[in-house]
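Course assignment 3, question 2. Fill in each field.
Student: A.L.
Task: Predict the tertiary structure for the chain below.
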Amino acid sequence: MGIKACRSEARIAARGTPIRTVIFKDVGGIRYTLRMWDTGRLDKRGCSFMSYELYCGFSGSVETLFEADDFAGSPMHADDSDETVRALLSFLTLRPGDTDAEYFSGYTAEQLAWCQAHAYDLAIAVLERFGE
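Answer field:
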């Protein structure tokens, strides 16, 4: 999981159609795009595991911040709902000090630097769009 050049559109298309794409056009001068896909797997509660990719940047210089297939939302909300997007982004915008240090043990140095420099701004944008 590191910041790296965004995969080609062909790679993204191979995953199928995202169940949700959310774009934040200007968060401190940065554009963020979150794409979510259904993996076809269920967690122990029967909720869908989703894969996701959070990108930042503009067309010529897009980088992947986070990419995984381990998120399952609440059984109370649809996988493509605003509540599920808000929940996922609340995890991705956590910063050191917001939760236990072990939460960040798998983060790269680049991800930690992004968290410290930009996660708060994106968290505020998420709250403004989707509420608490």
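Instructor remarks: Confidence is low (pLDDT under 50) at residues 1-6. The helical segments are 9-14, 82-92, 109-130.
Grade: pending
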